[in-house]
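Problem: given the chain below (169 residues), write out its structure.
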Amino acid sequence: MKLEDCAMEPTLKDGDRILVNKMINGARLFDVFAVLNNEDVVIHRTPGLGNFKRNDIQVFNFPYQMNRWDSVRFDVMQYYVKRCIVLPGDTLEIRGGFYKIRGCDEQLGNYSAQHDLANLDHPEQYGIVVSTFPYDKQIGWTICEFGPLPIPKKEQTVMMNRTNCLLYR
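Solution.
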């Protein structure tokens, strides 16, 4: 896979080629010719052989919704490369532009990019989109002040309230 417009710099640079182990989470199997013909496809996933770890680099298709909350779509021919900073059971926060995981002292992600963002008084003046998920004015999360966002692990119970309904719908 050749990288273009890489947001993972300096770890990966534009034009780098990487080898991807898709067996950790289980490879996806689908009819690539149906995708190329813009047809709906059924995707099957093989059993995974391992678990992700913090700071692993992952390759995935970015999901998006077609004005519906009951289904998710993605372009199987467009790939994103990102670093895994949060694991199931963690709680993510961003304070002053810096990622923090409650109870974790590891450096997360690209520290210099976080430092640059934290030093901008008004990032929107530079064309940076400041608002972020869940896009709710009462919650008011931004790319510089976000969370806490608990990431549930398997079989963890999440109590539903107004905020959690927005986060986990």
